[in-house]
Amino acid sequence: MQQRVLPLGIALALLGSGLSLPVVAEVLEEIVVTAQKREQNLQDVGLSITAFSGEQVRELGFTTTTDVANFTPGLNITTPQAEGSQVNFILRGVGLNDFTDANENPVAAYFDDVYRGAMGGLSLQLFDIERIEVLRGPQGTLYGRNTTGGLVHFISKRPTDTPEGYAQVSVGEYSQLQFEGAASGPLGEHVSGRISVSTDDHDGYVKNRAPGVDNYNAAHARAVRTQLLWQPAEEAEVLVQAHYSRNDAQVGAWQHQSVGFADGGDGRVEIGPDDINPFCPTGPGLDCLGYRDTDNDPWAGDFDRDGSVEVESKGVSAHLTWELADGLTLVNIAAFDRVERLQEEDTDASPAPLIVPTFGASTDQISEELRLSGEGDDTRWVVGAYYYDQNVDAQYDLDLSNLGFVVFDANYTQDTTSWSGFGQYEFEFTPGWTLIGGLRYTQENRELDYLNVDTSGFFTDVIGLPDDVAFAFSKSSVGDIAEHDRHNVTGKIELDFKPDDDWLWYASLSKGVKSAGFNTGFLDSTLLFASNTVETIPFDEETLYSYEVGFKSTLFDGAARLNASAFYYDYRDFQTFRFELLNQIIFNTDAEVFGGEIELQANPWEGWDFAAGLSLLDTTAEDIPAAASGTPKDRTMVSAPDITLSALARYEWDAFSGKMAALVKAKYQGETYFDIQNYSTSRENGYVVTDVRLQWTSGDDRWQVAGFVNNVTDEEYLGYTFDFASFGFNQQAWARPRWAGASVMYRWQ
User: Fold this and answer.
1) Burial of 364 (0-12, 13-18, 19+ CB in 10 A)
2) Do 22 and 6 form a contact (C-beta atoms < 8 A)?
3) In this predicted structure, which of 19-33, 84-98, 246-260, 318-332 has the lowest mean pLDDT?
4) What is the pLDDT of residue 539?
5) Does 2 map to a domain?
6) 509-524 CB burial, b ≥16 within 10 A, e <16
7) Whose CA is closest to 131, among 267, 257, 16, 29?
8) Which of 637, 85, 23 is nearest to 358 (CA)?
9) Using only C-alpha atoms, what is the Rg of the chain?
10) Cα–chain-centroid distance for residue 634?
11) Contact at 8 Å (CB) between 332 and 320?
12) Which residues have a Cβ under 8 Å from the Cβ of 232 and sit 6 or more positions away?
């Protein structure tokens, strides 16, 4: 493995005692990252970064983009419509658990230097990966979109000028069958190519007791990536990449929990099997619709509907790199991406079709980045421009006809156009001391055209409204409130001190901004089924000021690394999310975050690798209005556990003319909330998950056979909750149960 870490207590004890590691200790391999748009040793970058090599991705069992959170301090994932759907990255408490297609995440996702804005297109397979980089904190200078929280960058292996490739087959629980492989090599003079493919199929691990309806959380995923690299001259290259993926899965396996109001409606309480909900007294333990799940099994339910998601993602990009005279480098990246999503779920998690939503959207984006960089004896600089255009065309349907209510048909388009210019300058003004400054100017225009109508006749025939329009919101109906026209300046200033090759100390002040936006979903101006007014539809941009200090160190003659950071966030106009009646509302408030991370890496003895990471957080979202009374209260931010601790141990030894390796990793996550109101029913109290892996690699490194067990103890823990107390229940999504499997891989070169 390339990145290796010593357990926290051992490393700190050795550091404090001044002892040396045994002479058999192995020197850690250098980790190269491109966090500042050029290749650098991780230890030379004054940012809090976690990086994983492709081999680590394999051995740590990362198979999808969401798995990166399992071993990254401070990074969490929520999927507000359950596994396989929308993905929200939350870093150091900064994130947004919205599930509409119109929004973007404040933790940006990049794939091979291209930003992808559609949250519905981020649940992807990981295959043929060169590296993953997680950058914490605002990245408001060198990166183009919405990075108040940071970013996650997935980097693919590139075409090679010599033939190489691999094929891997994996089997596992629930009839799982996975394949991934790649082939790379020269295609002609100055031209090379690479093709990478991946498939993943498994049955649903949430049993559906309803007859004739599939089990939930099955997967049927396909992905392919092709790359063509043309190098017409030593100083120039053009890389063209195309990608396609499709995921057809059964998702939304919500567990049903009967809940009622507490504290005058400001709180929530579980309704026991013998309790009567005073808000809707339908029977002992029942919700307002007359149902209760009684089996206490987090992986079984009574679902009347095939909860399905179909996501198709495709795109193409062209990367030009040209080494000009006098050390100048010109880079141009042009890309187009499209994500099409259709999702259906059984919202009420009962055997009757009562709350029946369908979400469909098509998101197109075009991006263009041009940058020029250079360096001198004691300076480095980069300047550039970035253009982004996104169009979201969505149709959301909500059928409440079996409850005697509306059938909503909501359609909207959202158009976003943004451009920015940026620059960063580094100056080593005296040996060991470097000052870094950067600025980015961004101008953005976003416009929403929205119409929601009731097609059931409930509005006109039952309650006597003059028409069936539930909500209309566009420039023609509400004027300029349907358009955001914003500009902002972001950036950072940083001071680095590097007294020798083994230590780097840094301090920085950085500013990030996430775009203003609009609330969508099932808007209703009558306030019968949603609590929206025209004034609540737009929400403003958020601004985060980060104050951070840290150090990076290489210890014991290269056998260990210790990196640490501490930060304070002044979070202004923080975009947060609450759910009321049948609709979500994003609104602005202020927040502050204190925290830090420690990561340790070491090879203390021959054959041994250790890893540990610690994240500490103290988050406060200010003046959150209580659900019923509206009384403002401070709350803990969503998916921001106060402590997360991960640890890994790996031992490798000679066996069977090759190498055996045993790996054990564990993660502890403390208390976390899934709702900004901090309801007791939206809280996960904390859990420990342990994974094990045993593998054999042949002496020529061609064959690899492995077996693994994830979640060895079959820990039951919540991955998300959603509050429907107005209907007397709470949706619960539980994380995967124990999962065992094995794989065989063959490599050639």
Assistant:
1) middle
2) no
3) 19-33
4) 96
5) no
6) ebbbbbbbbbbbbbbb
7) 29
8) 85
9) 26
10) 26
11) yes
12) 190, 238
Structural domain includes residue 559: yes
Q: Is residue 1 part of a domain?
A: no
Q: Would you place residue 721 in the very low, low, confident or very high pLDDT band (cuts 50, 70, 90)? A: very high
User: Rounded to an integer, what distance in angstroms lies between the CA atom of residue 707 and that of residue 343?
Assistant: 34
Q: DSSP characters for 80-112?
A: TT-TTS--EEEETTB------TT---SEEEEET
Are 516 and 540 within 8 A, CB to CB? yes
Lowest mean pLDDT of 2-11, 113-122, 232-241, name the range. 2-11
As given in the structure block, the two tokens for residue 597 are 């991370």
**Of 37, 47, 50, 41, the residue nearest 89 (C-alpha):** 50
Nearest 5°: phi and psi at 476?
Answer: -75, -25
User: Which strands sit side by side in the sheet containing 49-53, from one edge to the other?
Assistant: 49-53, 129-136, 150-156, 107-111, 114-116
Q: Which residues, other chains included, contact 635 with Cβ-Cβ below 8 Å and sequence gap of 6+?
A: 620, 621, 624, 673, 676, 677, 678
Burial class (CB in 10 A: 0-12, 13-18, 19+), 230: middle
Q: What is the CATH number of the domain that holds 321?
A: 2.40.170.20
Around 636, how many Cα atoms within 13 Å sit in the side-chain half-sphere?
19
Average pLDDT, the chain: 92
- Coil, helix or strand at residue 287: coil
Distance of CA 219 to the CA centre of its chain: 19
- 514 and 448 in contact (C-beta within 8 Å)? no
Q: Which positions ≥6 away from 501 have C-beta within 8 Å?
A: 554
| Spatial CA neighbour of 136 closest among 688, 616, 647 | 616
Judged against a pLDDT cut of 70, whether residue 476 lies above it is answered with yes
Extended strands (E) in 203-328: 207-208, 219-233, 236-250, 255-262, 267-270, 300-301, 308-323
Q: Is the dihedral of CA 6, 9, 12, 17 positive or negative?
A: negative
**pLDDT band, residue 18 (cuts 50/70/90):** very low
Query: What is the identity of the amino acid at 457?
Result: G
Interval 722-741: pLDDT, tens = 999 999 999 998 999 999 99
* Mean pLDDT along residues 246-266: 89
Domain tally, the chain: 1
- The mean-pLDDT minimum among 88-102, 104-118, 381-395, 401-415 falls in 88-102
Type of residue found at 590: D
The Cα 48–Cα 400 span in angstroms is 48
Handedness of CA 518, 523, 527, 531 (dihedral sign): negative
| CA–CA gap between residue 245 and residue 645 (Å, rounded) | 33
- CA dist 286 → 275, 347, 582 (Å): 8, 16, 20
- Residue 160 inside a domain? The answer is yes
pLDDT tens digits, one per residue of 177-215: 999 999 999 999 999 999 999 999 999 999 988 887 888
End-to-end CA distance of the chain: 20
pTM over 0.85: yes
Under the banding of pLDDT at 50, 70 and 90, the label for residue 693 is very high
Both tokens assigned to 258: 């009967």
If we measure between CA atoms, which residue out of 439, 343, 342, 341 comes closest to residue 383?
Answer: 439
Is residue 619 over pLDDT 50?
A: yes
Q: What residues pair up with 571 in beta bridges, in sequence order?
A: 544, 591
Q: At 171, list the tokens.
A: 């089997």
* 438-474 tens-digit pLDDT: 999 999 999 999 999 999 999 999 988 999 999 999 9
The model's confidence at residue 80, banded by pLDDT at 50, 70 and 90, is low
pLDDT at 25: 60
Note the pLDDT of residue 527.
Answer: 83
Residue 2: the pLDDT is 37
Question: Residues 6 or more apart from 476 whose CB is under 8 A from it?
Answer: none
- Count the neighbouring beta carbons within 10 Å of the beta carbon of residue 90: 24
Range of the domain at 211: 8-748
